[in-house]
């Protein structure tokens, strides 16, 4: 798998994205059907093995560049991540990381926060400036309470992540037009 359309198709079939924070999460993800996965925490020492293992299992792997221990999110760090680790895409909150990732032909996810109207406005403006492939809205649970016209102000495919613990929450979020949900709640990964 490599392209944006492949990923969108995969997310339509499996809209719950495992958010991996530990080696136990990686072990659990290696036992489930192939899908998109987010590696949220790792170190520069273990990341290549993690990504390679997940890809061998058939997963479509995104790495949260901002959270990798030992990796700076400067141009050299992102080029290293793209060339040596070789995920399908990167997740970040930083404009420069998105720009470099796009230049390296990686898929991109911009994380924005729905903490208040100012944070939403700032995130939306950043999205218009860098044109990511997807936007991940945090906390994902807030999507249930936000008016749908506000969500429609963002013309990018949306993923909701953070504080999502139940299948009922997942279903409510997806019913709001959100493409997918990322969660570290392992019980939801095979739903």
UniProtKB/TrEMBL annotation:
InterPro entries: Aldolase_TIM, GlpP. GO terms for biological process: glycerol metabolic process; regulation of DNA-templated transcription. Signal peptide: none annotated. PANTHER family: GLYCEROL UPTAKE OPERON ANTITERMINATOR REGULATORY PROTEIN. This is Glycerol-3-phosphate responsive antiterminator (mRNA-binding).
């Amino acid at each position: 798998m490599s392209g944006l359309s492949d990923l969108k198709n995969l997310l339509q079939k499996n809209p719950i994205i495992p958010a991996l924070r530990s080696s136990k999460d990686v072990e659990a993800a290696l036992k489930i059907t192939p899908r998109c996965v987010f590696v949220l925490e790792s170190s520069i020492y273990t990341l290549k093995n993690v990504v390679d293992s997940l890809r061998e299992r058939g997963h479509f792997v995104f790495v949260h560049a901002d959270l990798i221990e030992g990796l700076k999110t400067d141009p050299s760090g992102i080029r290293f991540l793209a060339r040596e680790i070789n995920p399908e895409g990167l997740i970040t909150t930083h404009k420069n990381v998105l720009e470099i990732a796009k230049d390296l032909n990686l898929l991109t996810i911009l994380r924005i926060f729905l903490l208040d109207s100012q944070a939403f406005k700032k995130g939306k403006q950043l999205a218009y400036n860098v044109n990511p492939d997807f936007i991940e809205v945090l906390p994902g649970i807030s999507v249930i309470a936000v008016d749908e016209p506000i969500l429609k102000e963002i013309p990018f495919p949306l993923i909701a992540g953070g504080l999502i613990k139940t299948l009922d929450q997942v279903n409510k979020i997806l019913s709001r037009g959100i493409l997918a949900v990322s969660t570290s709640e392992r019980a939801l990964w095979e739903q």
